[in-house]
Write a structure and sequence with these properties.
mainly beta, Jelly Rolls, 2 domains, 10-stranded mixed β-sheet, 9-stranded antiparallel β-sheet, 3 helices, 19 strands, 8% helix
Length: 307
């Protein structure tokens, strides 16, 4: 009977889809290892610490410029990850210890539409932050967002809400912070950028020129709940990326995401879906700018115009 009980316990572990962080004392990065032998999530340095690709003159290569911390493109980070596949209508979870201050979540597909729910779990039946993600093309415009993880007993849940024919690829990068940390991305952009208050039920649109290859978006509140929708449009009512966000405390867990914006005619639209009693503060800034695409550093307000 004892042998049979142990066999059942081993079978339950082998069938689990949870991930746990293995501490790494030598660096801030960690690896997320599957208990069932799935690939690890090796991590690189946190966003904002890698160098900018230098300009090589008139050979056709582009120079990347940005005010504030130097950017790391989403593609560069994907090359350092060993992500896992999340099949349609399945759930994968990733747990980590209390030393992790924040995690970056990456989602993409092989060019097909992507539908997923990303949640921060903290204890039983408690999800203080939720994100519903839609991507028209998960290869051209992958999802990249930072989730703040104060406290303990945190875990990230990634559920592919698409059909079985639409698998997605997920990667997670953990940041332990510490004395060498560059700080929270939401704090960095708040300190260097102009923010706007969006009242409950209000809509703000932000167009930008073709030179802007990616945009960083930050949403926060004064500690009250945050409910908002962030859309990337390319043409009238043509949604390329949609994120619906809920945060229990918009000050402690501000929303921060980097949106890839290839092509022309890109517009970011932010909708405060809460009532008028719950205003939010928004910052929208270029993240990677390709000067060879026709817009220089002298562009008015770096190509950003609030309307």
């Amino acid at each position: 009977m004892k042998y049979y009980t142990n066999l059942l316990a081993l079978s339950a572990i082998a069938g689990s889809s949870a991930f746990v962080v293995q501490p790494n004392a030598s660096s801030r990065g960690t690896s997320l290892r599957s208990v069932n032998g799935s690939p690890e999530f090796p991590t690189a340095t946190s966003q904002g610490t890698a160098g900018v690709k230098p300009s090589v003159g008139s050979t056709g290569a582009s120079s990347l410029t940005k005010s504030g911390p130097q950017p790391t493109s989403t593609q560069e980070i994907w090359e350092t990850l060993a992500p896992v596949t999340v099949q349609g209508d399945t759930l994968r979870t990733c747990s980590f210890d209390e030393d992790v201050e924040r995690v970056e979540v990456f989602l993409k597909s092989e060019g097909r539409p992507l539908n997923a729910n990303v949640e921060l779990w903290q204890g039983p039946d408690n999800a203080p932050q939720k994100m519903s993600v839609y991507l028209e093309d998960g290869s051209l415009r992958p999802f990249r967002a930072t989730v703040e993880c104060p406290g303990s007993s945190n875990a990230i849940s990634i559920r592919n809400t698409g059909q079985m024919e639409f698998p997605l690829t997920a990667g997670v990068e953990a940041d332990y912070g510490g004395s060498d940390s560059a700080g929270s991305p939401s704090e960095n952009i708040s300190a260097t950028s102009t923010s706007r208050v969006i009242q409950g039920g209000a809509v703000y649109t932000t167009p930008f020129p073709p030179a802007v290859q990616s945009v960083q978006v930050m949403l926060k509140s004064d500690g009250r709940p945050l409910n908002a929708r962030v859309e990337l449009l390319q043409g009238p009512n043509n949604n390329k990326q949609v994120m619906e966000i809920y945060t229990e405390d918009g000050s402690e867990r501000a929303f921060y995401a980097i949106i890839d914006t290839p092509g022309v005619g890109n517009v970011v639209r932010i909708v405060n879906t809460a009532t008028v009693e719950f205003p939010i503060t928004a910052c929208v800034e270029p993240y990677v700018v390709d000067n060879s695409a026709g817009a220089g550093e002298s562009s008015s307000a770096r190509g950003i115009t609030w309307s």
